[in-house]
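Lab notebook, bench 4. The sequencing result for the construct came back, and we need a structural model before the next group meeting so we can plan mutations. Quick request posted to the team channel:

Model the 3D structure of this chain.
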Amino acid sequence: MNVRAVVTDIEGTTSSIAFVHQVLFPYAADKLPAYLREHGADPQVRVLLDAVREEVGEPTANIERLITLLQQWIAQDRKATALKSLQGQIWRHGYERGDFRGHVYDDAVRALRRWHRDGIALYVYSSGSVAAQQLLFGHSEAGNLLELFSGYFDTRIGHKRDSAAYRTIVAQLGLPAGEILFLSDVV
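Done. Here's the predicted structure in token form:
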């Protein structure tokens, strides 16, 4: 098999599940109320909050109701695109302030660098938003790894347990499926 592209997941694949569940999720849950109260009227946040309202069928839900729902979704690790986008916005502040650095396994860093050096195109496909993916790799303990990647996919392409999502990625990469290696902790 001649691998020309690697599409990797993050949580449990290149990075520790513990980092996501013990650092990122609690950080977002802690900062979410103040963030939404302060930024809820911002156009990019308002669109996401409207998506939450639509998803739960509560078009008039106020900010406090949305905070309660979103914190429940964080606790459930719900794969809702609006939640993942909001978490990414909150995490951006944490990364930029230096509150934490993205965890990437040492052997994953070595493999990603070697594949990149060998001309293999690297992509990320994760439930976390593209922005959150870029933050993790851009502010990692190993430094800025963004230059290694050619592109990113998130739940807007489909969910990781949906085979149609993988067919869409193959089509977008323009390579035969047999030349793409998908790495994930999901069987």
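The chain has two domains: 5-16+103-183, 19-97.
Will bring this to the meeting.
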